[in-house]
Amino acid sequence: MTDYIGYVEGFAFCTIRPVVALSLVPFGGSESLGVTLRLPLMLMFATLPQQIGWPADPIVAASVEVLVGLLLGLLLSVAFHAAGAAGALIDQQGGYSIGSSYDPNFRDESALFERLFIWLATLTFFTGKGLQAVYGFFADAWVLWPPGAPRPDHMRVMRELAEQRLPLSMVEGARIAMPLIGMMLLVDISMGLMSRYAKRLNPFTTARTVKAIVLSLVIVACVPVLIERLNALFLQGAILQ
């Protein structure tokens, strides 16, 4: 007779790693839409190893799974952090971080362009090649580090994470934001020159609105380019060596 209890126990144990990993990927909070997006992914990734029964030492094995989940979550969140860093730089330079907006889906507050870029990263994750890459990423992780493996190579992955993956998120965030920040600088210069001839024009109060309009139009026009770049980041981050 098929050991259904063993399959249930193995499936429950294999949910530890994807739950911890997906909780670190910032495409949603712990409420509402964030849970709705994470739950099917967690169930899908937990079925990959087809584990039967609990490991010999459940406490030690669960601790190993939590640590592996932390490493995988940090590796997967590089593209999201790059997108958020780009939006945060734009908000800081444009002065939009003062007035944060409330997101009813994720129930948190963030500046306008930071939230917009994270939404673009989420859209890329679920509609582009990001989800396929993450599926292969978890499949490779289960092969390299089987469920409850006693001695996974954590130090090598943590060294790679500290030396390559995390600096990549900051570099890519600055690379995405720099052209838009340069455009904001041109708008500031233009408003300053216009104020010399239009005496009643106050560039300090008008420039923020003009920059927001220009940035919105440019970002809408550059959505395909941004999605392509975020796709490349997802594919680059979802590689285990």
Q: SSE order in H/E notation?
A: HHHHHEEHHHHH
Structural class: mainly alpha
Euclidean distance between termini CA atoms = 40 Å
Largest sheet: 2 strands, antiparallel
Explain the overall architecture:
Strand 1 and strand 2 form a beta hairpin. The protein has one domain (4-237). The chain is mostly helical and 241 residues long. The longest helix is centred in the last third of the chain and has 44 residues, at 154-197. The protein has helices at residues 4-14, 16-23, 33-46, 58-76, 78-94, 112-127, 130-144, 154-197, 203-221, 223-237; strands at 101-103, 108-110. A two-stranded antiparallel sheet has the order 1-2. It is built from 10 helices and 2 strands; from the N terminus they run αααααββααααα. It starts with a helix and ends with a helix.
